[in-house]
Specification:
mainly alpha; binds fe (ii) ion
Amino acid sequence: MEIDRRAFLATLGTAAVVEAMPSEALADALEHHMMETLDEQATGNELVIRRGAGSIFGAGGPSGARSELKKLEPMPEKPTLVDFFKSRFAPATHVLQSATDALKKGEKEETVLACLLHDVVLNLIKVDHGWWGAQMMEPYVSEKVSWGIRYHQALRFYPDPSVGYEYPELYNRIFGKDYVPLPYIKETYEFARKHKWYMEARMITVHDLYAFDPNMKVSLDPFIDIIGRNFKQPKEGLGFDNSPVAHMWRSLIYPDNPL
Ligand SMILES: [Fe+2]
Ligand SMILES: [Fe+2]
């Protein structure tokens, strides 16, 4: 089988990355590349970048461009939410900006926490991140907080002038100008719109909008006490408490494990 050496090396990253790779890793990568090329030839399909994988797995930004992966430090034996912010979600600029905006505008603690947590699951997975994100937080936060996280995803596509929320200009770039949300997103929006907790999700989208300011300086410090009061930190550590979502936290602790 013929291998296009340059195309193969380009899949690995920059020259510096390739240079630093141990030869076993290079051999593994080559084998993987050959398997993929064989599959491609067998099915006649062009390979694509799956855009739904989380940033810790190299998925990059919403444009789909891959980012270079950094080595991750090991996590403490009983990791807390703050540990995850420091060594897995960092710099977490977007969610910190959202939560800072909510705090400044005097939102209640549950809303501030929801803003702080609303997108952290993007480190694990991007597609349907509202649902994944809500599920990941559900055992540890109030029902309103996880409800808000679940529905913010669908609400982002629908304006609400009563709170000054407009369709985000950014979405024209990510999804295209004439994008129509899929039927399940529309149905979810219609359900949430009529729900008594509608505003729990809506306010996440309101503070989301102001969360892309490159000059706004943020830190986790103002949120430590809010986390302490509103996030039920399991004593065994996130990932090791046998909750139905412990594996999601573990996947972030050990993203380099092969299986
Ligand atoms: Fe989001
Ligand atoms: Fe967001």
